[in-house]
Amino acid sequence: MRIDALSGTSLLYNLRFRAILYQVLAVGSIVLLGWYLFTNVSQKLAEQNIATGFGYLSREAGFVISQSLIDYKPTYTYGRAILAGIANTVWVSAWGVVLATVLGLVVGIARLSRNPLLALLAFLYVEALRNVPLLLYLFLWYALIVTGLPAVREAWEVLPHVFLSNSGLTVPSLVWTSDYTIIIGALVLGAVLAFAIRRRMTAERITTGKERTSWPLIGLALLIPPALAILILQPDFTVSLPEKGRFRLTGGSQLTPEFTALLVGLALSASAGIAEIVRSGILSVRKGQWEASRALGLRDGQAMRLVVLPQALRVIIPPLTSSYLSLFKNSSLAIAIGYPDLVMVSNTTMNQTGQAIEGIAIFMLVYLGLSIAISLFMNWYNSRVALKER
Amino acid sequence: MTTATDIAEAQLKMPVRRDPDVGRRLLHRTLKPLIGTPLNAVITLVCLWIMWLGVKGAYGWLVTRAVTEGGAQACKVGQGACWPYYEAKLRFMVFGVYPYDEHWRVALAMVLFLGAIAVTMIPRFWNRKLLMLWAITIVATGVLIGGGVLGLSYVPTTQWSGLPLSFLLSAVGLALGFPLGVVLALARSSKLPAIRVIAIVFIEVIRGVPLISILFMASVMLPLFMPSGITVDKLLRAQIAIIIFAAAYIAEAVRGGLQAIPRGQHEAASAMGLHYWQSMRLVVLPQALKIAIPPLVNISIGFFQDTTLVTIIGLLDFLSTVRTAMTDPNWVGIAVLEGYVFAAVVFLVFSYGMGSYSRFLERRMRLGHD
User: Fold this and answer.
1) Three-state DSSP class for residue A174
2) Which residue intervals of chain A are DSSP H helices?
3) Fewer Cβ neighbours under 10 Å: the N or C end of chain B?
4) Of A258-262, A300-304, B58-62, which gets the smallest average pLDDT?
């Protein structure tokens, strides 16, 4: 009775009514704000005579992109230019992730070394990279490459056939023919086969309890398809080696100073973060786990692979995901040193067409989409390594 | 009768037996990790070699090969650090285009600001009086930098630059981003679906795109969204972008803290008759924010470094004034390394200091006395 009387006094004291009221208010104010901004924008655009819509994507771009993975010429469309920018962003981020992971793993393990000098060096490496902004390093590497290195004529040969000069890094490259695409396809096929065989043999071992040596079969599955492809196609493996000519380097492929500085900057700064992640991951596995695996008769390598690493990965994967994501997002700093990534190409497009809203919308959507794709993939991988509880 | 005291005294009187091997054992303990195995010995040698190269290079550049006198010409010939460059350009690198005669004002403001931060860092002073201190500091630094009152000449925001601008952008960004971040974190863990969805979309969109795109949005798109006739200061636009960006990251750190609070705390607060806001303000948030302090300090370090990105949209922050100093016609191409090394050292000192503080806080919380 009393409760009814109380709830009858005012709707405001009804919890369900209040929940609905709050939500209506929140959504309503956002809709109102959006509508207000929209009217402002349409008025401004009309006043300033700026076109709207994405029609410009199919018009001729007319600007040069200094380096592109996909085929691009100034006569191509804006849409194509933006695609070239996306390809460049993905290219530098992918290499950055690979390099940063390798470096981070090495430095992270070095941080835990029993050798105090090595641990100290790794510590200095991490702190020097973590405490100085990436943008400063990018400017610094770029300035060092452009002003500190010798001209092409006096290029340093750092490794045989690897030249470093103020126009970037020149490395040997394979002359790409369509045969290679087929060989790579065969490699992938072999890997899939090997994976399937491994799965079946593991399942068999679990059900029958019999141990069979699996590696010869897996090795064969891995090797036969590409070997067959090579035998049938008989491609000529031409490696283009850079040679020092009188005035310039011939052959090989050229990594521009912008690309080199960006790649080095991104990889180094991310590797410092990854080193810390690896270190804390390994530290999170208790000493007892090592001792227990030794007591079970596992060798050190086996203990690392079968006992310690699976547990460390559980701790490592989530923060590793966010450091890959931030490397990918940081590649947008390319604009500061002139590497034609997505942001820089979009910026040029915006300057030429005046359509800022569309330009920014495109690159924000692309970043958002790729970020979500990376985190979905890493979440999937994480759920595989995560603790399986009953 | 022998008592414990007697035994202790007897022990004290006993001649201390000197371990003849103590020195050798100590030597063994230090050397074993260095040259215990052949591989370790090689690693040690390589490390020593790298360190030697580093020290030799740094010492040569800073001291033996350094140019200490003369002007740009001497530095152009010399191979080492150019000290005259620092002499000529230090004030520009730090204060930028702020009026030269008024530099004392920004310098004083920075001293006040850093002093307030130093006081804030000491856990003993964590109480309500801190808010007073910060209110005074904010008003004082605002008056000192902006001027226009108390006989101080007015300095427009276009002349705010250098290290003070970097501090300002990150401090205001974090200070205003914090309450917004807390509200977003509460909204994200709300029971009301519409409010939760709004918070999730906002946080994830901001975290999914690079800071530079939000800065672009603020500098290029925001003017289009304003009604005709109203212009927003360029510095303010960048500041808004940084606040929004900071809020999204702070929200995630606070959410981590909120999730660590057991449900029993919420239930106990309700049982005491507290309504939602009371239970949040008096019971849940004080505990959640305490847990979130170390990640929040780490976010602050990141933001201090990230403010350098405003260089790209043309604001004169510290990195930008350092780069502008290099383009002085008298010095162009001469002191590139000098400029970047100076900027790097400044960032290193502040970031490393804050990082050590964050580790101190984590240790203190793990002890968990209060």
Assistant:
1) strand
2) 2-9, 15-48, 78-111, 116-130, 134-143, 178-208, 215-233, 257-284, 287-295, 300-302, 309-330, 334-337, 342-353, 356-385
3) N
4) A300-304
Residue in the structure block whose two tokens are 């390319």: A334
CA distance B318 to B161: 7
Q: How many CA atoms lie within 13 A of B268 on its CB side?
A: 8
| Mean pLDDT score, A308-333 | 86
* DSSP labels, A259-328: HHHHHHHHHHHHHHHHHHHHHHHHHHS-HHHHHHHHHTT--HHHIIIIIIHHHHHHHHHHHHHHHHHHHH
The domains of chain B, with CATH numbers, are: 86-367 (1.10.3720.10)
Q: How many CB atoms lie within 10 A of CB B229?
A: 5
Query: A with B: how many residue pairs have Cβ under 8 Å apart?
Result: 144
Quote ipTM for the complex: 0.83
**For the segment A165-199, what is each residue's pLDDT rounded down to a tens digit?**
877 778 777 766 677 778 888 888 888 888 888 88
The answer to whether B110 faces chain A, any CB pair under 8 Å, is no
* Signed CA dihedral, A380, A383, A384, A386: sign only: positive
Angle at the Cα of A236 (from A231 to A239), degrees rounded to 5?
Answer: 130
Residues of A in contact with B305 (CB under 8 A): 131-134
As a whole number, the mean pLDDT across chain B is 82
B213 touching A, CB under 8 A? Answer: yes
Query: Cβ contacts (< 8 Å) between A26 and chain B: which residues?
Result: 194-195, 198
Judged by CB atoms closer than 8 Å, whether chains meet at B352 and A127 is answered as yes
B217 touches chain A (CB under 8 A): yes
Q: What is the pLDDT of residues B330-346, one digit of tens each?
A: 777 777 888 888 899 99
Task: Report the alpha-carbon distance of residue B99 to residue A87 in Å, rounded.
Answer: 45
Chain B residue numbers with beta carbons less than 8 Å from the beta carbon of A363 are 213
Query: What integer is the mean pLDDT of A63-89?
Result: 83
Distance CA A95, CA A328 (A): 11
Rounded to 5 degrees, φ, ψ at A340 are -75, 75
The pTM of the full predicted model, rounded to 2 decimals, is 0.82
Q: Is the dihedral of CA B214, B216, B218, B221 positive or negative?
A: negative
Return d(Cα A368, Cα A363) in angstroms, integer: 8
* Averaged pLDDT for residues A20-41: 88
